[in-house]
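Researcher: Structure for this, please.
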Amino acid sequence: MGALFLVTLVVPDYDPAISWYRDVLGFTLAVDQPLGEGKRWVVMKPDEMEGAGLLLARADGDVEASSIGNQTGGRVSFFLRTDDFARDHALYVSRGVEFSEAHRHEDYGTVAVFRDAFGNLWDLIEHHPSRPS
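Model: Predicted structure, token format:
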């Protein structure tokens, strides 16, 4: 069976998106390949070796541009796992990330929702050891 390795995220432009995910969330720029006509194949990964990456796709036209920040109709789009919620929450806040709620403790772990620079909703989650995902 295959494994999910990329998810497309429509963004206004490549470089501001690369900067935000790299400098604010600490992602790695895994690939930045020119495709011609101003298009690029840009992949950001939260972990260089494991897990899925984000394929940053620059919006092409009004329909794609209108989906920026709302690709899932207002629901949380992405779930970012951490092994130390307090550490990463404090780091993100120090880098200007605004959480839309106070963190909360659920049966599955500690979680809080934040918005990225483009309006997409993310969960920052530290799973409870007995409930890994």
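Researcher: Any notable elements?
Model: Helices lie at 14-23, 62-66, 85-94. The first helix runs from residue 14 to 23.
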